[in-house]
Input
Amino acid sequence: MKITRTWNRDNIAQIETLFHTANGYLGVRNAPEEGHVPGSIRGAYINAFHEIVDIHHGEKLFGFPETKQTIANVPDAQTIRLTLNGKSYAMLSDETADREQTVDTETGLAVRSSVWMHPDGAVRVIFTRMASFEIPNLFLLRLRVESVDYDGTIAIESTLNGDVTNYANADDPRVAAEPLRCLTLVSSSIEEDEAMVVCRTLRSGLTVACRAMQGCSLPGGWEGEGALFAGHYEGRLRPGECVKLNKLVVYTDSLRCGDPAEEARRVMREVRTLGGNELIRRQKKFLAAWQERAIPQLCAPEPLPQALTYDLYQLLQSTGYDGVSSVAAKGLSGEGYEGHVFWDSEVYVFPFFLWTQPEKARGMLTYRWRLLPAARENARTLGMAKGALFPWRTISGGECSAFFPAGTAQYHIDADIAYAFLQYWYVTGDLAFMAEMGAEVLVETARMWLELGHMQDGEFRIDCVTGPDEYTCCVNNNFYTNAAAQYNLRGAAEVLRTLREAGLEQTVLGATGVTGEEEEAFLTAAQAMRLPRDERLGISPQDDSFLQKKPLDWKALPKTDFPLLLHYHPLFLYRHQICKQADTVLAHLLFPDTADIGTQKKSYDYYDAVTTHDSSLSVCVFATQAARLGDLARAREGFEATATLDLLDSHGNTKDGLHTASLGGAYLAMLRGFAGIRAEADGLSVDPVLPEGWEGYSLPFAFRGRSLRLTVSAGETRLELTAGEPLEVRMGQNSVLLIKAE
Amino acid sequence: MKITRTWNRDNIAQIETLFHTANGYLGVRNAPEEGHVPGSIRGAYINAFHEIVDIHHGEKLFGFPETKQTIANVPDAQTIRLTLNGKSYAMLSDETADREQTVDTETGLAVRSSVWMHPDGAVRVIFTRMASFEIPNLFLLRLRVESVDYDGTIAIESTLNGDVTNYANADDPRVAAEPLRCLTLVSSSIEEDEAMVVCRTLRSGLTVACRAMQGCSLPGGWEGEGALFAGHYEGRLRPGECVKLNKLVVYTDSLRCGDPAEEARRVMREVRTLGGNELIRRQKKFLAAWQERAIPQLCAPEPLPQALTYDLYQLLQSTGYDGVSSVAAKGLSGEGYEGHVFWDSEVYVFPFFLWTQPEKARGMLTYRWRLLPAARENARTLGMAKGALFPWRTISGGECSAFFPAGTAQYHIDADIAYAFLQYWYVTGDLAFMAEMGAEVLVETARMWLELGHMQDGEFRIDCVTGPDEYTCCVNNNFYTNAAAQYNLRGAAEVLRTLREAGLEQTVLGATGVTGEEEEAFLTAAQAMRLPRDERLGISPQDDSFLQKKPLDWKALPKTDFPLLLHYHPLFLYRHQICKQADTVLAHLLFPDTADIGTQKKSYDYYDAVTTHDSSLSVCVFATQAARLGDLARAREGFEATATLDLLDSHGNTKDGLHTASLGGAYLAMLRGFAGIRAEADGLSVDPVLPEGWEGYSLPFAFRGRSLRLTVSAGETRLELTAGEPLEVRMGQNSVLLIKAE
Output
């Protein structure tokens, strides 16, 4: 599947995002090779590689974080300047024609092509980029210049530059006004056709090495010193001839190895042994296997099938699973949200990996487990004697939210993470992982709920929290939070019981010292959890007071007032019945046992009317739940909006990076919404629906060591076991035993 | 009455505060004359004379203020260096003995005296300071050096310095880390024995002129240039002889006059015509009249009578009533809270002026009226189509709170200001002022409540507000807020009706365009105001959810954990039943009709148990209400704690400035608590009590053009009309007609 765009002065940064090349470890925005142009947000990032910066609070109260982590720009290796007869190529110049930017999800290559109508004759200029899935340290960049009728000199300058800064924009209050320089040069060198810069962040003390090798069909080689090296190549280009430059760039960092410089040398040797062409072949091979295993085939009108494939390809590009990284809100495609990891990772992105690539899902969970010590510290800051509270936004574990009402107060992130661990267990059956890491996370998060909430009048109440909906902050008994906490508490007790029965409880006992009384208390709190129903409206109230608040006729507001958070004071939003995003609807989707179907339907309609969807995390949830409630028209419409959110730039800020939660939401809508695939402790259930206008779909997934494929069309629903042992599955009201066809 | 202290290395800044000299316009901290010493917070301030500085938010949302006002240090004229035989005087040196710092509330002078055991003989060094009540621009400073047995040279250097900065302390996160320089020099000059510097603030564009004249018994005169001038005087001092320096300093500013330099010249001429000695005489005369008119005589064990007099003297020093200033949280005694005006002014300080110096009370209200345009703008920022919302903290009208949950969300400040306007009307009967300014403020604040609240199920609800208790933020239907809003709404309707009946409604109609429908809506909202009672506990709930929150065993916490806000995250405090300060108790005190006496008593006990009194605004309210509820032991204890709060530095931060709210709270406890003096629309009521251990008290006050004095002793209660027309007063259950004794 190929996505194609043309570029112009207004969409440069959007192109940079949509066509960035990444592989979960390394991400390079598709910036103009010739260097900075107005509107560009040039950058390359290593997942979780960050600097530390101060947070300035207008009024600093106890426990407010004093610093935060921010994703660091790493050395720039994407700059290649092409000069013909003394005139330089510029992708935005009036002389370029046939501008075409593509990404192909089958080859894993991004290609930028144009015809340069040089005064002395036309040439075709083609840049090809790849971030290797085979060797994640590798970024490959190729230039090919084909003369149509140009005859003259050609010069190519291709650089490696450690002197980079993060993006700044003095006109945008949401972005740093002054460019942040994260790196200082440690060492640099040229060794034959390879150049290397080694840099260290000033405050976080992380080291990155960037080693580049290039070969060109013209004579030349590396020059330079300090943080900047340039390869210069010069010669002559005649009609029909072609000049090529191949650049192989290896990034390594001290989060993942002891000696990044040495590791870069080693990986470069490996890369060179294989060669660029072989790595390009392997990229294609990797993606063929991945698509077979992970990508639903959708027979529906374009651009939907294309968009879905694009979205999932971007999830693959964005997500780290090496245990020290996960998926940031913008993946590796931009600096929006500063590279921070939110609940998006577990609730929105995780299911895709869980159901198709569980080994990667495990990597994401390992990342959280490794942050437990910081989460314990965070809980202490919040006045809790026990337990762990994961920060609302983080890279390396410290809270990076500078506004607690819509940040730290979202305690639900603990339950969201616990939910992912439990889902991992239910889907994979991997009890060993639960024994080693999962149970510890579940116990520490469950403890947090006991500290946070309290029993009154027979109910377990959780006061002063913020649910997912950030237009309603610091309220009591948020329905989503309470429902998720209940799942967390029950799950913790369940995994403890299961480990005990399997004789595998030693690790969690050693790590947490959890007692039988605590296990009992988890169950008691879960049992008594306050989850009320508003009898008058027949819905689940978003929190104790939401339904008493003043209605807001938001549909009468001018379009320019949206998103409301950019035009209304938080106190205005908080005192009205207005939602930024799905909250109670998400609770009903993830925890359907908390309300009967009638309540869920009425709640859906009620919250749909008061939700602006100003958050990109919202429409996908409404779409998914609509499918579950049988409103397939709404489901399809929401799914389309979700799947095309970045491709159509419908939130207007794709330039800052992809919306990974929405990308994941598209999968959620397919898996949970349309296919009705769900796992709980008692096993797998499948309950598919097919919206009007779709011919059908076919969805591969993994469950407890087995491979399955669900195929749905107007005439038929087929669930196949393509590998593994027989399996009992609940389909609608029936239970069926699947056996692998011979 | 005289207060005396000695000084040492540890209490320098506390001495500076307690003995600062001020007059409502000008305030000079009692800093070491010889110049900066460690621990000192040197400063001189003009009420409301401010600079503008940026606010840096960790995460800036819509409507967050981008700048704030901050009180500016004005030129330093308190520096006088004394040198004997080449050795300089230092108040903290081991050579000083008999250190005595006094302030005398009858003379209005602060005197610092010590004996300097100079190696060449002893001298007595006496500094006298005065901020004139007669000519508020004047600061007078005198030095007297008396030789006991010293024989040698004497040199005096006395300076005027426009090059000053605000206080900074890199070790205290609550104070600016870098000294802020607010002033830039505009011009300076020496004219015979007068020197002058004229400076302008950089961003707020205000001008201050400081003109100093000095005369000395030694020969010498001014020298210098730029922002720094020094008078040098030299000669010989022999045993038994005395050297004197008299310094007259005039401050003027562009908030109050068009040409501060010219005005300083004019005022200096006036000052010199009168002479320092005459101004000192007039200071004493002014204070004698003031004390007769304003100060309760208290026959109770010391230090109570002394402390009360000190407190009220400080209120006189702190409060501006020129219409461009009021009283800051720290008065003119320090830079704590940056010179900002809060609700303290109207609820805590205002009653003293209202009941004893109503012309000054009117000045305080005029200040608020002049800020109405900014308050309207603030309401628009908060999403209100109509009405005015006064900022939580301000100098010139813009919101200076950088943390809205404990700042801007305290909408009750509108009702507090409205309460002061209504009380002014009830106490003075000044309908003309209500026609001119009061009604406009009442209508605009009442409109704000209509915008903020809404009707549901027959109740008028006000959601997402913070009451006075800052340990409970952004809640629904805070009892105090709703009660105060009800008073505001009713009062607005009442004043409109009264003005209409008197044919005086034109000004308010022109200013606000208020309609009959709005007037009706004010009354409807007031009538339907949600003011629930918790039937189980028999108390008024602080808000809709306070009583459902988790109890906190705060008495078990170590003393070092207090104030809790410095040791616990706001989210911890918000989710517990814990109060920083009086809230519902204050509602019952100010609006006793909102709950019956039984409910008030039970509420008092309930909230007393959950209130830490971490705020200096708390104990005085509990003391006053205890007196009203007949618990006189508690009332006396609380009153003692209140009256001595700064003198004993019981909050540990008197160094940053006086706690003017607590100073005013001491008067509130006397007037409203013990004397039981209260005015409402229907007139004056007096209902005094006398705690055990007190012989009695005598309290002068003014009411509707009359002078009265209430005298209470164990045997007798006497209410005298000392001037004015006969008056009907409710005393306890009876109504009595007072006639002036012949």
Observations:
- The longest strand of chain B covers residues 242-253.
- Chain B touches chain A through 48 residues (CB under 8 Å).
- The longest helix of chain B spans residues 479-501.
